[in-house]
Specification:
mainly alpha; 8 helices; about 70% helix; globular
């Protein structure tokens, strides 16, 4: 596999920066022709583009991207797939530029809102806060005690829970980090099957509380 779990976790955590890092990996892996404008029609390039398109397809279907993306169908014909990959790379770069501008505009807007005192913040009630603490502690214990997860994946999940717990008492401008757990639940279900149920049940309750 060209893309490991680290880059996939980055995309789940922050689709904009994660996708930018993904494109950098693809660019490094691909070789271009003499003109420097097109990718060479090599088997290695075809394999890279194929894996890239497959990963984007899964991410798109799982709603892990923050924008609509049309994923080309693989034909398994070298020339066609590499050309489709070039178009997809260009499309994502353009979309990332747009999303980055939106993010920068939102950041500027939030700074002005803070100055004027008009910002919206989400703050958990004492009851919800207590329950979230309990759920995160239980989830941490379950993840730490399981032998069914790869050590790197286990470590990243525990680190994410630690960050979430550190933010519970803060006023939050959004609860996106908590919703990121829903994606983790899907991954655990796929990897662990029925053994994931205790963890998935707690993630569902966390999502329900943050959705109020």
């Amino acid at each position: 596999m060209l893309f490991d779990e680290t880059i996939i976790e980055q995309i789940k955590e922050d689709p904009i920066n994660g996708l930018a890092n993904l494109l950098a990996i693809v660019d490094t892996s691909l070789t271009k022709d003499v003109s420097g404008k097109s990718f060479r029609l090599t088997d290695k390039n075809h394999e890279t583009i194929t894996e890239f398109i497959l990963l984007l397809s899964v991410l798109n279907e799982g709603k892990f991207l923050h924008f609509e993306l049309s994923i080309p169908n693989l034909t398994h014909i070298k020339e066609h797939d590499i050309q489709a990959g070039m178009v997809l790379l260009y499309t994502i770069r353009q979309q990332l530029q747009t999303e980055t501008k939106k993010r920068n505009a939102e950041s500027i807007k939030e700074k002005y809102s803070n100055i004027l005192g008009t910002s919206f913040y989400y703050e958990f009630s004492p009851t919800d806060l207590t329950r979230l603490q309990e759920l995160i502690n239980e989830l941490r214990d379950l993840i730490a005690s399981t032998n069914d997860l790869e050590s790197d994946h286990q470590r990243r999940l525990l680190s994410r829970l630690e960050k979430l717990q550190s933010e519970l008492h803060k006023k939050l401008s959004d609860v996106d980090r908590f919703w990121g757990l829903v994606g983790d639940a899907g991954v655990m279900l796929e990897k662990l099957g029925k053994n994931a149920k205790p963890m998935v049940d707690r993630i569902k309750e966390i999502a329900q509380i943050t959705w109020k």
